[in-house]
Amino acid sequence: MLFPLILALVGLLLFVLIGYNIIQQYKQKIEAEKRIAISKQRAVITEVDELLLNATRMPFSKSLLLILQHRIRNALMIMIQSSPNSAAIRDHLKNTDAQIQQVRTNYTPPDESIFRAPENDKEALQLLQVTKKIRAVLRSEHAKGKINTEIFVAEDHRLEIMQLKINLENGIKRIFEAKVAKQFGSANQMINKLLKILVSITDKDSYLEKKQAQLTTIKNEIKTYLVKTSDKELKALQEKEKEKKDDLDVLFQDKKKW
User: 168-199: b or e for each residue (b if 16 or more CB lie within 10 Å)?
Assistant: First the structure.
């Protein structure tokens, strides 16, 4: 009787150990999933914070600021579900709610026709990357149903115009460089490309209208220069031909008799 009892106790102990290990593995799995979820949402918040830092370098509409702030809020809500007892996350959520309210009541969007051109190619590239990232965020939020189609289309169009302005500044800079180098074919090609884009835009602001007029002026200046240059070259050629003719006349004129 004692031996079967010992076997039964050993079996029960093994069962308890196996069950304990299964429970521990399940808990570890849940904790790992929580850490992954929180890490993912922290990455979302970090990305949005970096985008918001550019609000002083490029005009952000009220709708865009609210979309970005709500993206942070949604990430924090997911983090709270994974870690409901985290005071830091709840404080972050409280601050985010306060910022959202501040934007709703006090934010005045800047005049979008006032555009500060990038100071160099590096800054231009950074701004282009920022606009591309924001457009990606908008597409993601729209796909999730967080923003309606009307707002998405309007904000995406604003960012598209912003990208155009950055590219315009880079294009005009290269046009001037080509003009100085007397590479008029390349300059005209770039001008025509930019003008074609600008003409197709029906809701141009004063900045874009100014740039369109500037490009047209440069195009006319190049045309005038080329015409004058051609006239000078033709005149020089005609004078050279005249000199040849005069030399021949002198050579074959009647000789004087002495």
Answer: bbebbeebeebbeeeeeeebbebbeebeeebe
Distance CA 197, CA 31 (A): 53
Instruction: Find, among 162, 154, 124, 126, the residue nearest to 138 by Cα.
Output: 154
Enter the tokens of residue 159: 């960012």
Instruction: Show me where the domains of the chain are located.
Output: 11-109, 111-242
Write the CA distances from 112 to 65, 81, 103, 120, 166, integer angstroms: 15, 39, 18, 21, 13
Question: Please, are residues 156 and 135 in contact by the beta-carbon 8 Å criterion?
Answer: yes
CB atoms within 10 A of CB 211: 21
Q: Do residues 120 and 173 make contact, with C-beta atoms less than 8 angstroms apart?
A: no
Cα pseudo-dihedral 157, 167, 121, 152, rounded to 10: 10
Work out the average pLDDT over 113-133.
84
Contact (CB, 8 A) for 55 and 134: no
- Contact in structure between 82 and 34 (CB atoms under 8 Å): yes
Helix (H) or strand (E) holding 93: helix 87-106
Measure Cα distances from 256 to 249, 252, 253 in Å.
14, 12, 9
Beta-carbon-side half-sphere exposure of residue 48 (alpha carbons within 13 Å): 24
Check: CB of residue 124 under 8 Å from CB of residue 118. Answer: yes
Q: Give CA–CA dist 245/125, Å, rounded.
A: 60
DSSP element (H, E) containing 202 = none
pTM over 0.85: no
Q: Model confidence over 170-229: pLDDT tens digits? A: 999 999 999 888 888 889 899 999 999 999 998 888 889 999 999 999 999 988 888 877
